[in-house]
Design brief:
- The structure is a single chain.
- The chain is α+β, with helices and mostly antiparallel strands.
- The protein has a single domain, classed as DNA Polymerase III, subunit A, domain 2 (DNA Polymerase III, Chain A, domain 2).
- It has six helices and 13 strands.
- The protein has helices at residues 19-29, 96-105, 156-165, 181-191, 241-247, 259-286, and strands at residues 13-18, 44-50, 55-61, 66-76, 92-95, 113-118, 122-127, 136-140, 167-169, 196-198, 203-209, 218-224, 232-236.
- Strands 1, 2, 3, 4, 5, 6, 7, 8, 10, 11 and 12 form an eleven-stranded antiparallel β-sheet that branches. It has a two-stranded antiparallel sheet with strand order 9-13.
- A hairpin with an 8-residue loop joins strand 11 (203-209) and strand 12.
């Protein structure tokens, strides 16, 4: 059974993804959505379809926490066939309850793949090989973000990116506030666990999935961690392809500070990778000898 779009809704992106990836991504991200009264658009979950890179991203934040899930697309329309006036990387906003419907509709149906059709106003998911083949759910996006008080939208991707650049704390002991545990438990349930690192600046980072290849579900999430050591290992909490993917999701296209900040982020990742390579090479050739910059790394123990 071939899914059809409602009259007047022309798909700008048509793709196929693994059902378990999409449902796990939704379940992992939506616990970190905020409330409308908090302002800054934190009640919205941003969904970004990138046809060129063949991935779907979900971004949520509530100011205290932020989460980004990257879902690989198995098949996607050739970007050259899309409407030239449509920017598929701009993203749509959905409420958490609307996205949750997708997980409920395809729960326990044996669905392995979902067909996704995304328009300027909707996201449609269709079962293509499960017990309910042809079943379709269509959810409507919210309008363009606008705040009467003039508040800028809170950028969840930028929040995660900043924590990824923070140095890992030397001591593993830290405290997660009690009122944050329920959200993290929901994320852990969705992912089957919760790999955590703490930073020297008082944050925790969850980094799991296909962090290097991005060929499977990848999740990066951050929150507060109390009692972390100010002493650091001199290496960032996370770097590599997953961090580079976050840069593509920044609301204004660049990290806070503009293009120079983007260059600084790339320089940070490059310098750290070079330092790690140098330390590895030095250790192999001279045993216990340290590199020129010492055991604390290129930032003297503060990679942020």
């Amino acid at each position: 059974m071939t899914p059809t779009m409602a009259p007047g809704l022309r798909a700008t992106v048509s793709a196929v993804c693994r059902a378990e990836d999409l449902t796990a991504a939704i379940k992992a991200v939506i616990p970190h959505t905020g409330k409308e009264k908090d302002g800054g658009g934190v009640e919205r979950v941003r969904v970004v379809a990138d046809a060129e890179r063949m991935r779907l991203a979900l971004v949520a934040t509530n100011r205290q926490r932020a989460a980004v899930a990257l879902v690989p697309l198995l098949e996607v329309d050739d970007p050259t066939e899309l409407d030239a006036e449509t920017d598929t990387t701009e993203g749509l906003d959905f409420t958490a309850p609307a996205l949750k419907v997708i997980t409920q509709v395809f729960k326990s149906t044996g669905t392995e793949r979902l067909s996704l059709d995304i328009t300027a106003q909707t996201l449609q998911a269709t079962d293509v090989d499960g017990l309910l083949e042809g079943r379709t759910i269509r959810i409507h996006a919210q309008g363009e973000y606008f705040d009467e008080s003039g508040l800028d939208r809170v950028d969840g991707a930028a929040a995660v990116l900043r924590v990824c650049a923070e140095p890992i704390a030397q001591e593993a002991s830290f405290l997660i506030p009690e009122d944050q545990l329920a959200a993290w438990k929901a994320t852990a349930t969705a992912l089957g666990g919760l790999p955590l690192v703490a930073t020297a600046t008082g944050h925790l980072l969850v980094a799991c999935g296909a962090l290097e290849s991005l060929m499977g579900l990848t999740v990066l999430a951050t929150g507060d961690a109390y009692g972390t050591s100010e002493a650091s290992l001199g290496v960032p909490a996370c770097d590599g392809p997953a961090v580079e993917a976050l840069m593509d999701l920044l609301l204004d296209g660049t990290p806070p500070g503009g293009e120079p900040a983007r260059e600084a982020e790339h320089a940070l990742v490059t310098e750290i990778q070079n330092w790690i390579h140098t330390q590895t090479s030095t250790t192999e050739t001279s045993g216990n000898a340290e590199g020129d910059e010492g055991a604390e790394g290129p930032f003297g123990g503060d990679a942020a």
